[in-house]
Write a structure and sequence with these properties.
Helices cover 37% and strands 13% of the residues. It has 405 residues and is α/β, with parallel strands linked by helices. It has a six-stranded parallel β-sheet with strand order 3-2-1-4-5-6, sandwiched between helices. It has a three-stranded antiparallel β-sheet with strand order 7-8-9, with helices on one face.
Length: 405
């Protein structure tokens, strides 16, 4: 593995690690953009990898310009996905730019991209080419739908994966209109699957001495996320949804909302009614069993909704928890981030003008840190080139020729 590097270009460590991070010494060449790939490489960077982000001259990662923000290319969307990385801006259409990319691979451990299938090969940066340069290279990539099959060359995007994988069609209430889930489930889950694949490939390389390809897709990750629902369909041809269970739901209170999960008890509806001060609805023939209650879910929820709307969230949480029922307030993201639990769990990471969500993985031997803030486009180009054997005179020439920004 490549030796670890000190922070460059004055972008010093915000926090000092008492122990070496687990991926210290691993070098990652990052061709990714938007979310699937960047959230993968950011996690690798969080755990100590030296991530060199290769971007397009003048434009960079699409996330730099995807929203209108006063910070422009360092907007919150870009920053959320690109800490602990160094940026070099290259013209990969130029022979000299391609040569630089290949030289970076010579001393790297991992190459990551999330282009459409075949793009890296057309650029001359496919696995066969790069493994000939460096047989130990791990070539990791994420696509929309895979590298073969009817959708291999279809543009991949989170919302499309939600739609085509069955996620968007699954609703708690059949009467609800179709809607797009507002958080990028497919991008994040595929990015984390890509991290898993890379770590497994690094472990296997320790035994074999050789790299390999690691592939994930948005489509596969969304199918995998539905493993319980998929098994029910494949084995019983039945729809299944935890959110559509009759004794589970979200209900408005006088000052917010509360969610109740009526499960893991012999008679959860009876316990809910006792907590809410209602007559025992489990004695009603419409709700006497789980199967019958499913058929009358709307009527049951009308009764619960009317009762819960009469008091505050805190009032109902106290009563529900007294019956040992699973319940929680429905909160905004802002409220969740301000909660003491988020602080205790080290889930908020701050730096100069930055506010980022931290890593959800915690190791007792060392916590992640903001070693490098999200980079300006090409901010580390000269230092990266010098580190890979280019003289200052050669770097100046590459800049003059428009190969490096």
């Amino acid at each position: 593995m490549s030796p670890p590097d000190a922070p460059v270009n004055g972008r010093s460590e915000a926090l000092t690690q008492k122990t070496a991070l687990p991926l210290a010494g691993v070098r990652v060449i990052d061709f990714t953009q938007v979310m699937l790939g960047p959230c993968c490489t950011q996690m690798l960077g969080d755990w100590g990898a030296d991530v060199i982000k290769i971007e397009r001259i003048g434009a960079g990662d699409l996330s730099r310009t995807s929203i209108d923000d006063p910070a422009g290319p360092l907007n919150p969307v870009f920053c959320s996905l690109n800490r602990n990385k160094r940026s070099i801006a290259l013209d990969l259409k130029a022979k000299a730019g391609l040569a630089i990319a290949r030289r970076l691979v010579e001393s790297a451990d991992v190459v990551v991209n999330n282009f459409r299938a075949g793009v890296m090969e057309r650029m001359g940066l496919g696995y066969d080419t790069l493994s000939a340069i460096n047989p130990r290279i791990i070539f990791a990539f994420g696509t929309g739908f895979g590298t073969a099959g009817p959708y291999a060359h279809k543009g991949g995007q989170d919302i499309l994966a939600q739609a085509m994988s069955g996620v968007m069609a699954r609703k708690c209430d059949p009467s609800e209109p179709l809607t797009i889930y507002p958080t990028a489930l497919a991008d994040y889950s595929a990015g984390m699957h890509l991290v898993q694949g890379i770590l497994v490939a690094l472990l296997q390389r320790e035994r074999t001495g050789r790299g390999q390809c690691v592939e994930v897709s948005l489509y596969d990750s969304m199918l995998a996320m539905q493993m319980q629902e998929a098994a029910m369909w494949l084995m019983r041809q039945r729809e299944f949804s935890w959110g559509a269970m009759p004794f589970t739901g979200a209900f408005a209170t006088t000052d917010g909302a509360v969610v109740i999960v009526g499960a893991f008890k012999a008679n959860p509806l009876r316990e809910i009614c006792l907590a809410l001060g209602l007559e025992d609805l489990s004695a009603d023939p419409r709700f006497a069993s789980l199967d019958v209650a499913r058929q009358h879910r709307a009527a049951l929820h009308d009764i619960l909704r009317a009762r819960i709307a009469t008091a505050s969230t805190a009032h109902w949480l106290e009563r529900l928890e007294a019956r040992d029922l699973l319940c929680a307030p429905v909160r905004t993201l802002g409220e969740a981030l301000e909660d003491e639990q988020a602080t205790v769990n080290h889930m908020v990471m701050r730096g100069d003008s930055l506010g980022l969500v931290g890593s959800p993985v915690h190791l007792s031997a060392g916590e992640t840190a903001l070693r490098y803030p999200p980079p300006a486009l090409g901010a580390d180009g000269a230092a990266i080139l010098e580190q890979h054997g280019y003289t200052m005179e050669a770097i100046a020439g590459l800049r003059a020729d428009g190969v490096v920004a």
